[in-house]
Amino acid sequence: MKDGRYYMRLVDFRSFLQPQVNEFLAKALPESGREYDPEGKHKPLTDIAENFRMFWVLVDDDQEIIGTIAINDLKFDERYADVLHRNSGEIKCYYLLKAYWGEGLGKKMMGFAIDQARSFGYTWLYLDTISSKSESAISIYEQFGFEKIDRYDDNRDADFFMRLKL
């Protein structure tokens, strides 16, 4: 413990963490009202090293994963040119176990990811989500200055889209 609280830290994903991440997602997604489908739509999450530019895990004192956040390059798509910019990144896999909600950890993860996106040289950062299952997350996004926009991708599960000028 640090200052009477558990010490949490974000660490870069390493391939040996893949089984732990799979276990974490199998718990975290249902907590947020989503189904974890590692054979279908979540297949990229079963090979993180191959499918993400950067992926971080939030671990507790016992090295247990309690949260994740990732950044991917966002390919420009002419169909969404009215809202999508070149040289952009996208926030992905922003999850935190429900037991840790309200402790400021989600804000710390998001602030870290935004700082990393700036260091990658992106000019914009995007995200998509499901509004009915992400009310707390949307509040965090707004606190960091993300603005609601029209659809920018083909993710049919998402119904809420945001971006942040870096």
Report on the structure:
The protein is of the alpha+beta class. It has a single domain (9-165), classed as Gcn5-related N-acetyltransferase (GNAT) (Aminopeptidase). The chain contains four helices and seven strands. The chain has helices spanning 18-31, 48-51, 105-119, 135-143, and strands at 9-12, 54-59, 65-74, 88-96, 124-129, 147-149, 160-165. Strands 1-2-3-4-5-7-6 form a seven-stranded mixed sheet, sandwiched between helices. Strand 4 (88-96), helix 3 (105-119) and strand 5 (124-129) form a beta-alpha-beta unit. 29% of the residues are buried.
Features:
166 residues, alpha+beta, Aminopeptidase, 7-stranded mixed beta sheet, 7 strands, 27% strand
β-strand percent reads: 25-35%
Radius of gyration: 15 Å
The residue ranges in which pLDDT falls below 50 over 5 or more consecutive positions are none
Instruction: Report how far the terminal alpha carbons are from each other.
Output: 34 Å
User: What's the name of the CATH homologous superfamily?
Assistant: Gcn5-related N-acetyltransferase (GNAT)
Helix content: 25-40%
How are helices and strands ordered from N to C?
EHHEEEHEHEE
Report the major sheet: 7 strands, mixed
Q: What's the domain count?
A: 1
